[in-house]
Amino acid sequence: MFYYFVLLILGPLLLIQGRLVRKNIPILAEATGGRSGRLGEGRPLSLLVVGDSAAAGVGVETQDDALSGCLTRVLAQKYCVDWSLVAKSGNTTEDLIETLQGRPFQADSLSVGCSQAKVLDDKNSGDNRSDDNKPDDNSSDGNNSDDNWLDNSSAPNIDVVLVSLGVNDLLSPIRESHWIAQQVRLIKLLKSKYSAKHILMTAVPPLHCFPAFPQPLRWFLGLRASEFNRKLVSLIELESECELVIIPLMPIASDMASDGFHPSAKIYRLWGGTAAKAIEKRIESLLHR
Nearest-CA neighbor of 67 among 83, 90, 44, 43? Predict the structure, then answer.
């Protein structure tokens, strides 16, 4: 590929710049707050957000302002959302696969009421929740629950998974073909272990816009991100359950967190809103078949 030719020519300079960035970039904490809960009323929807530091909310103070909070608030306007977040700073795709494979599952299915009827289940497309299945008043604040139902249940059936991965892979020596093979493994795992019906894969962000990187490293990483996304699009075209999410923004410095690398609250809102629209569109298409 072209960028491998660039790497051959500019390799020493890019390596030096990469080491300086790693040394000098400030380390920001993950967003605080609960990582699972239930929010809203209406048709039941189970949601799993997985990934890296961006999924974990690095760049903002609390999960309310992070991806999971922004996404669940929008969805809760129409649905009863049971949600869980599995994310960690530094996660590569391989790291996440190992984490999901090792999640403990015990006796019961989802204990929350919304699990009685799945909104993306064709056989349960009607609104058939009974009064017994309404959320408890004590658990209606979905952003303050400390209990992660993925840890406390048998493998649940997940309606929607939102994936945030790619940057840490891209910054490693991995080839794009190997990365795509890992995406295939992740998709298979989400479908087999969690019965995921709709998988939203977030595009690798435009690293050529990230102020944390100097030139020509920024330009090179942008080329690499484009190649990763090109391969990801080709994969998603073969997976009917999968959909690509592109944040509708070419970020400038003021759009980023203080480290020039992670999203700000503005980007998290755009990301969550864009993902919510894709989810609602899929649900509506199934309900009107």
Answer: 83
pTM metric for this prediction: 0.84
Best CA proximity match to 157, nearest among 131, 119, 187: 119
Rounded-to-integer distance, Cα 127 and Cα 193, Å? 26
Strands 198-202 and 160-164: parallel
Query: First CA to last CA across the chain, in angstroms?
Result: 43
pLDDT the model gives residue 90: 95
Question: DSSP string spanning 238-254?
Answer: T-TTEEEE--S----GG
Could you give the CA distance from residue 22 to residue 217 in angstroms, rounded to a whole number? 12
Cα–Cα distance measured from residue 205 to residue 261, given in angstroms and rounded to the nearest whole number: 10
Quick one: residue 166, left, alpha or beta (phi over 0 = left, psi -120 to 50 = alpha)?
Answer: left
Helices in the chain by DSSP H: which ranges? 2-24, 53-56, 67-75, 93-101, 167-170, 176-193, 217-236, 265-287
- Among the residue ranges 9-18, 35-44, 207-216, the one predicted with the least confidence is 9-18
Measured between alpha carbons, how far is 132 from 178 in angstroms, rounded to an integer? 48
Amino acid 9 reads I
Contact by Cβ (8 Å): 200, 275: yes
Mean pLDDT of the chain: 84
Helix 217-236 vs helix 176-193: crossing angle, to nearest 10: 40
Residue 184 near residue 199, CB atoms below 8 Å: no
How far is residue 68's CA from residue 38's CA, in Å, rounded to a whole number?
A: 12
